[in-house]
Every structure is written in C-alpha cells, then in structure tokens.
C-alpha cells in the first residue's frame, strides 16, 4: 500500500473529521434513501481495520468503514450511527431485520442477491495466520489432510477457500476476534481471512506469522439494500471524491490497515 509521507496523524484526523466537501448536497430523495430513519446506520464488523476496531469510546474507534461512514453522514447532514456485528455474515442477517442502511464490504453471489455495490475502492489480500511453533511455513503446506482452517462465518475468504482447499478441513469461526482464541486453544491450526484482519490478530499473538503469498483477494466497496438504487449515483461520486480528497488513504493509515492496495 503506498502511503503519503507528509500525511501526519493530525492531517489525517482533519481530513476525516472536517475537510470541505467536493460532493454536492444530496437531494431529499437521496437523503431519504440513505437515511430513512433520520440517521445513517452503518453496518460494521468488529476486529477488522477495514471495518471497525473498537476503542474505549466510540470516538476512539477506527477503521476504514467507520471513518468513511462518519464522513458520509456529515456530508448528507444526518447523525452517524454505527451498527456493529461480530462477523460479515451477521451483517447480512441484520439487513433482513432492517437494522442498517449502508455497509462497506465486497460483493459475492449471496450479497449481490440483496445488495447493490459501488465499484471497489480497496483490494485486500486473503491469506493465512499460523500460531507460534506451527510447522506450517508456506501457503502450499496448509492444504493437507488433518489441517483445520478456521474462517470467519459469512466472510468473503470462504469463496477463496472453496476454490483452493481440497484436503484440509474448513471450520466456521463466529467472528474475526474468535480466530485468535481458536488458534490459542488448538481448535484450529490456521486462521484464514483478509490480511488486514490477520495482521491485527498477529500483533496480539507473539510468535504467530502471516504466511507469505495469497489465496485470493477481498474487494471493499460501498453497499446498500437493493431498494436504495436511487442513492447509487451519489455514492459512486462520493467514492471518487473520497479518493481525490485523500480520505481513503487517511482512513487506511489511521486504521493501520496492512495487506491492502487502493483501486
């Protein structure tokens, strides 16, 4: 991921919190489509710097989805309300209950049946995390009989695993943070996810390693329910503006997101 060496933390905070907006004020129809309850309810999943990493307080949280959602709510003139789930799969479940209005993650067949997406603005590699002392040192050594691969329930990495894993056993992890517990307890030999999540977990597990190489990629886009089509032109323009203003780069740097490239 290319970074801007002159982009200090203070500048990043300024960009996220209050820079001048290029995008025009949305029409009442667009505002209603994005925030029908009067608040912009952003669906996020915990433990991912691409989505949200919780702080002691809400204002102390970080993550690309969190920062961009907060900025988008400011631009359209409504309160920001993060709705945090334990896993990407739980986000889709929350949609069925009408709990949120917009989210940040990538398309797959299940999601595309109920959501519409902007073009992706980030690409994150999928990979593997192994605990300290693991005999597994390469991606090619993972797919062997008896190896247990944990993966976030409903996460996009599961499509990569379905294409590449022929011999190992894939088991569902209830959440991204639960992957750490599964490795520590010996319930899994490997944790599969996007590398942004894996590096975050590895920081908490001395001696653990994110294996070199990748098994796929995870695209990050803005997604809204299919009945919100009228909001899509505004959201597509928002992503272009966020790129040109440096907001996406600032959010990536503030979250400490690794293993990603911009599009």
Count of extended strands: 11
Number of domains as seen in the coordinates: 2
**What is the annotated CATH architecture of the largest domain?**
3-Layer(aba) Sandwich
Percent of residues in helices comes to 25-40%
CATH topology of the largest domain: D-Maltodextrin-Binding Protein, domain 2
Low-confidence stretches: 1-22
List the helices and strands and how they pair.
Blueprint: H1 9-18, H2 28-34, E1 40-45, H3 64-76, E2 80-85, H4 88-96, E3 102-105, H5 109-112, E4 115-117, E5 122-130, E6 148-152, H6 157-164, E7 169-173, H7 176-185, E8 190-194, H8 195-202, E9 209-210, E10 216-225, H9 232-245, H10 247-255, E11 260-262
Parallel strand pairs: 1-2, 1-3, 6-7, 6-8
Antiparallel strand pairs: 3-10, 4-10, 5-8, 5-9, 5-10, 5-11
Helix pairs in contact: 1-10, 3-10
Overview of the molecule:
Strands 1, 2, 3, 4, 5, 6, 7, 8, 9, 10 and 11 form an eleven-stranded mixed beta sheet that branches. 35% of the residues lie in helices and 22% in strands. The protein is elongated and about 60 Å long. Helix 3 links the parallel strand 1 and strand 2. Helix 3 packs across helix 10. The chain is an alpha/beta fold and 263 residues long. The N terminus is likely disordered. The chain folds into two domains: 159 residues, D-Maltodextrin-Binding Protein, domain 2 (3-Layer(aba) Sandwich); 92 residues, 3-Layer(aba) Sandwich (D-Maltodextrin-Binding Protein, domain 2), CATH 3.40.190.
């Amino acid at each position: 991921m290319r970074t801007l060496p002159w982009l200090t933390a203070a500048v990043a905070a300024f960009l996220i919190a209050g820079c001048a907006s290029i995008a025009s004020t949305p029409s009442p129809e667009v505002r209603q489509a994005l925030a029908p309850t009067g608040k912009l309810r952003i669906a996020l999943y915990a433990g991912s710097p691409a989505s949200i990493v919780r702080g002691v307080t809400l204002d102390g949280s970080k993550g690309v989805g969190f920062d961009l959602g907060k900025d988008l709510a400011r631009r359209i003139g409504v309160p920001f309300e993060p709705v945090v789930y334990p896993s990407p799969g739980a986000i889709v479940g929350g949609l069925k209950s009408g709990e949120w209005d917009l989210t940040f993650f990538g398309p797959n067949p299940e999601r595309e049946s109920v959501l519409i997406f902007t073009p992706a603005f980030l690409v994150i590699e999928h990979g593997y995390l192994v605990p300290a002392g693991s005999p597994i040192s390469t991606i090619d050594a993972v797919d062997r009989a008896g190896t247990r691969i944990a993966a976030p329930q409903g996460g996009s990495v599961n499509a990569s695993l379905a294409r590449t894993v022929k011999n190992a056993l894939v088991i569902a992890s209830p959440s991204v943070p639960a992957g750490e517990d599964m490795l520590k307890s010996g319930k899994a030999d490997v944790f599969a996810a996007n590398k942004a999540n894996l590096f975050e977990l590895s920081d908490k597990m001395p001696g653990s390693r994110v294996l070199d190489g990748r098994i796929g990629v995870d695209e990050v886009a803005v997604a809204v329910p299919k009945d919100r089509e009228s909001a899509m032109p505004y959201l597509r323009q928002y992503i272009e503006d966020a790129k040109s203003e440096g907001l996406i780069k600032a959010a990536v740097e503030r979250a400490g997101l690794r293993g990603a490239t911009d599009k």
